[in-house]
């Protein structure tokens, strides 16, 4: 009989406790910079959210990323073999636990980035070898380890544009699309801002990029999107200047684009002001003439 099973997973990417139906684990991710031969230690948090007792097992998998989407495989990575933690834990309903762990980096560890995910699952690692239909609940913690040596922190902005790469924008908010490519051998966390400037170079607004600190794995790219809703009426030529910093060496990458905002509300307000400015002297002159004529008529 062919083996069949259903796996329910949820891997959180924000700095919040990670919940997968009935299991909560934390932290969401672990990041370490180490030297060959180092040992680092810490604690994991786990809670059984169900109304019945559960036995949970750690399962290690390698993960990669394609176009910003994480791919998990049972292929054993070097990092998964460095991780030391207890083989299982039994929790009563609602019970919480803190689990100590260590990462033992071998002396011959290759420099650069090493990545794995630790799943806490209701089924052991060899579950797939069983011929049964089951529902497996699991929740995971991403682990990023950078081993010192020949580190290459390389990358940059691959593209920066408005939505649809439009130069004439008539609708708000304005959407900016960013693609950052990591060409090095360690994960990068590009962060920075978009400065909105007028034709005179004065900054009108600023948008933060990658506030949650999302990582980009080596030789991959990730897309970011930010929306700009002007705090005041926007009209005319504007410049968006993207500035990103990344890596321990604080490298930077910059791109800028020009676009024209044609906002009907702003346009109508501008036209109305111009009309008032043009007609005001004429109306005032006519009004003065009328006042004078009324005064002379009373004599």
TrEMBL record:
Keyword annotations of the record: Membrane, Signal, Transmembrane, Transmembrane helix
Signal peptide: 1-22
Protein's UniProt keywords contain Signal: yes
Superkingdom of the source species: Bacteria
Keyword Transmembrane helix: yes
Transmembrane segments: 257-284
Protein's name in the database: DUF916 domain-containing protein
């Amino acid at each position: 009989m062919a083996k069949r099973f259903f796996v329910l997973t949820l891997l959180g990417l924000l700095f919040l406790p990670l919940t997968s139906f009935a299991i909560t684990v934390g932290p969401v991710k672990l990041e370490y910079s180490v030297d060959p031969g180092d040992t680092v230690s810490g604690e994991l948090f786990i809670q059984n959210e169900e109304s019945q007792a559960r036995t949970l097992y750690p399962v290690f998998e390698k993960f990669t990323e394609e176009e910003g989407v994480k791919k998990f495989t049972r292929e054993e990575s070097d990092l998964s073999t460095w991780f030391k933690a207890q083989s299982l834990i039994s929790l009563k309903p609602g019970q919480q636990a803190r689990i100590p762990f260590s990462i033992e980096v071998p002396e011959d560890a290759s420099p650069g980035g090493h990545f794995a995910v630790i799943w806490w699952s209701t089924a052991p690692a060899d579950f797939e070898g069983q011929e049964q239909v089951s529902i497996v609940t699991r929740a995971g913690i991403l682990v990023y380890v950078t081993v010192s040596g020949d580190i290459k922190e390389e990358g940059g902005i691959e593209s920066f544009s408005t939505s649809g790469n439009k130069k004439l924008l008539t609708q708000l908010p304005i959407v900016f699309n960013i693609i950052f490519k990591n060409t090095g051998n360690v994960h990068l966390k590009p962060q920075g801002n978009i400065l909105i400037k007028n034709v005179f170079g004065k900054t009108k607004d600023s948008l933060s990029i990658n506030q949650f600190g999302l990582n980009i794995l080596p030789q991959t790219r990730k897309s970011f999107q930010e929306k700009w809703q002007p705090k005041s009426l926007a009209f005319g030529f504007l410049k968006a200047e993207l500035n990103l910093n990344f890596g321990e060496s604080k490298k930077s990458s910059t791109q800028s684009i020009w676009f024209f905002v044609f906002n009907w509300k702003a346009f109508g307000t501008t036209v109305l002001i111009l009309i008032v400015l043009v007609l005001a002297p004429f109306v005032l002159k006519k009004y003065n003439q009328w006042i004078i004529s009324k005064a002379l008529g009373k004599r």
